Amino acid sequence: MSKRVPRLTRAGALASLFLLPSLAAATAQTRTLETEHGSVRVETLAQVEHPWGLAFLEGERFLVTERNSGRLMLGGGDRMRPVSGTPEVYRYEGPTNRSQGGLLDIALHPDFSENRILFLSHSRWTDEGGGTAVTRARLAGEDGDDPRLEDVETIFMMNNPDGSGLHFGGRMAFDPRDGSLMLSVGDRRNMNRAQDDSDHAGSILRMTTDGSPAEGNPFANDDGKAPHIYAIGLRNVHGMAFHPETQELWVNDHGPLRGDEIHRIEAGRNYGWPFLTGGRDYSGAPLGEGTEREGMEQAVHIFERTVAPSGLAIYGGDQFPDWRGDKLHGGLTARALVRTRMENGRVVQEEWMLGDLDRRIRDVRVHRDGSIWLLTEHEDGEVLRLTAAR
Question: Which burial class, exposed, middle or buried, applies to 350 when counting CB atoms under 10 A from its CB (0-12, 13-18, 19+)?
Fold first, then answer.
């Protein structure tokens, strides 16, 4: 058996090896595609390599993480620029080259406009193994020729790291109610870990902006349980969003073979993985006990077809009024943007959109102007902007 050796990548050292595409050249690429509620204009804003997370700055500027290279890219104006000072990331590259680690999500501090502090989730190697981490930094020099991260500090590292290159989770979102930071951690391809409330794997975590467990976490005062944990029993959450009106926390979770799920997350709840699943093992063998079990939360929705969901936004803008309140899921296997509409606590409409693009969609964000931005997860990935075609 081959030994798994960590590969550490520092983005700044790699930046000069890549030709950075011009935004001005990219914006000429537009298409108009049809949906159930009218035409959508799809505009290519930039090209990026295996993008994973997206954050909006002032105006039309934005930040994008590149998973494999470990680069953080600053877009706006007429060019993409690498931001120096990003943390080292761990990516196992063995005979099957199946690592899902790297530089993952980005989230801006609730007071970013004043303090310029941001948070990056990524895979990290320690003496005990690899796992999901969060690094905090301050963005500087963004208006000049030397955008960089300063005051870089890794504030959180999951417990029980191991040698797996799979299921890091890594999606983040700030709770609008109290400013705490939510982080998903995958089960690290060891399903039993998701039922262990002393183990960060297979859970949603809640922390302060210094990485400490947030006050009021459900297991904070229970000996032997992990105080960062907010909810357990999840497989590999790559989509997370707070509803803009109800402020409920919603996630989409990768199923095994089929069985991708939508959950409404509440403190202290167990969402059932691997006991509850609508999917099967990759061998085709059955998994779990079905979709109901006492003491565990059923999924709000189980997709009948494989979506491989990554990225989640709940639409609240004016560009697409017919979609207001709908959930928008990035689809990797689906190669589509999947829209779900809920009524009375269940999904009543599901539309697979933009299939003509034939691109794996990694992240979905709603801009303050109501446009929808997507990242396509390819070596020649893109930043796409959707607006209503008038």
Answer: middle
Q: Would you list the DSSP string of 293-318?
A: -TTSPPPSEE-SS---EEEEEE---S
pTM score, whole prediction: 0.94
DSSP assignment of 213-231 equals: BPTT-TTTTSTTS-TTEEE
Q: Is 243 a catalytic residue?
A: no
**What's the rounded Cα separation, in Å, for the pair 17 and 55?**
24
Residues in the chain, how many? 390
CA nearest to 388, candidates 338, 328, 320, 321:
320
Q: How far apart are the first and last CA of the chain?
A: 59
| Contact (CB, 8 A) for 155 and 121 | no
Q: Is 180 exposed, middle or buried (0-12, 13-18, 19+ CB in 10 A)?
A: buried
List residues bridging with 51 in a β-sheet.
66
Residues pairing with 23 in the sheet: none
Q: Are 87 and 120 in contact (CB under 8 A)?
A: yes
pLDDT in tens, the chain (390 residues): 333 445 566 544 344 333 444 443 344 589 999 999 999 999 999 999 999 999 999 998 999 999 999 999 999 977 899 999 999 999 876 665 578 999 999 999 999 999 999 999 999 999 999 999 999 999 999 998 899 999 999 999 999 999 999 999 999 999 999 999 999 999 999 999 999 999 999 999 999 999 999 999 999 999 999 999 999 999 999 999 999 999 999 999 999 999 999 999 999 999 999 999 999 998 999 999 999 999 999 999 999 999 999 999 999 999 999 999 999 999 999 999 999 999 999 999 999 999 999 999 999 999 999 999 999 999 999 999 999 997
In the beta sheet, which residues pair with residue 102?
none
Helix (H, G, I), strand (E, B) or coil at 26: helix
Contact 373, 386 (CB under 8 A): yes
Residue of 167, 228, 329, 367 marked catalytic: 167
Rounded to 5 degrees, what are φ and ψ at 308?
55, 65
What's the rounded Cα separation, in Å, for the pair 185 and 388?
Answer: 35
What would the two tokens of residue 37 be? 């509620």
Alpha-carbon 34 to chain mean position: 27
Cα–Cα distance, 107 to 76 (Å, whole number):
18
